[in-house]
Design goal:
Blueprint: H1 2-47, H2 51-56, H3 69-76, H4 79-110, H5 117-129, H6 134-143, H7 150-155, H8 161-173, H9 176-184, H10 189-197, H11 202-217, H12 221-226, H13 235-252, H14 257-298
């Protein structure tokens, strides 16, 4: 009886310690979640509030006085729609190129048995650590006559080495017997890639696709350097210009609370309309994205 009571007490103490550790972990995670979520809620609330309400309570979690005036002013400017159109065009131009190059290079480097593979892999990894810089990139794009064209921006980053390594590790985790059996049936490398490897690689493809999508959607630096036409300004560059214009207004009219808060509402509205498209796409890729991240972390 004493031994049984001792085991019961030990199990209760273990359960108590386990529940206490869970409570601590949950508390920490909730705090981190609030640190991440609350600023975004504040941004959304400011974009829907009035200048007076913002002046009274800068830290808003819900707009006390709801208004769409900030968004009306934002879309009347016209630059946001130009940014959406240009960023959409950039995605259509760059995403197929990025995915094709990343997939084919990762598959080629994942296959063993051909000479020079290790050297090529080290050469590719070297480019992740060291680059020529923006001036050689600009001169290269200029030599092809693509300065001022969105193709110059699309081709300025054909492949991301880190994303390629993630896909390479996944391809290497697939069973080699699948490739060998396909070769015995007479399949070539491209047929093996498209018919066997890619259908089994949906998680990593979704992960890399989302990475490239966010990268291209956030493109602004190369566009700022290579494109001078205001009709071909990506959305992120438009957002940058709006923020700079609002800061100039704040500096000129620093004594006017109404103008200051109105410019703040414009900036927050620009952030919201920029983030929404990615937030709408992410839920459809979430299950593949999470699995792909875990696979890359294990490798």
């Amino acid at each position: 009886m004493k031994e049984k009571a001792k085991k019961t007490k030990k199990a209760k103490n273990y359960r108590l310690r386990f529940e206490l550790s869970d409570a601590i972990i949950l508390t920490v995670l909730v705090i981190f979640a609030l640190i991440i979520v609350l600023p975004f809620i504040n941004v959304v609330a400011i974009s829907f509030t009035t200048p007076k309400a913002y002046a009274d309570t800068p830290l808003l979690l819900f707009p006390k006085v709801f208004t769409l005036e900030n968004y009306q002013t934002l879309f009347q400017d016209g630059r946001i729609m130009i940014g959406y159109r240009t960023s959409g065009k950039l995605l259509l131009m760059a995403m197929p190129l990025n995915m094709f190059l990343t997939t084919t290079v990762a598959y080629g480097l994942s296959r063993t048995g051909y000479p020079g593979r290790k050297f090529l892999l080290k050469f590719v990894v070297f480019t992740m650590l060291f680059s020529g810089g923006i001036v050689p990139l600009y001169l290269t794009v200029k030599s092809y006559g693509l300065i001022g064209s969105m193709w110059g921006v699309a081709l300025s980053q054909g492949i991301n080495t880190f994303y390629m390594i993630i896909m390479l590790n996944f391809f290497q985790s697939l069973s080699e017997s699948l490739v060998e059996s396909a070769k015995l049936d007479g399949a070539g490398e491209f047929k093996i890639l498209w018919k066997i490897v890619l259908p089994l690689s949906k998680p990593v493809i979704a992960t890399v696709f989302l990475y490239y999508l966010v990268d291209r959607w956030n493109e602004w630096y190369n566009a700022m350097i290579m494109v001078r036409d205001t009709q071909n300004t990506p959305l992120q560059l438009v957002l940058r210009n709006i923020v700079l214009d609002s800061q100039n207004i704040d500096n000129i009219f620093s004594e006017s609370i109404e103008l200051f808060t109105f410019s703040a509402g414009i900036k927050m509205g620009a952030v919201v309309v920029t983030v929404i498209p990615v937030m709408c796409i992410y839920p459809f890729l979430q299950k593949y994205f999470t699995k792909g991240i875990m696979l890359g972390a294990v490798k």
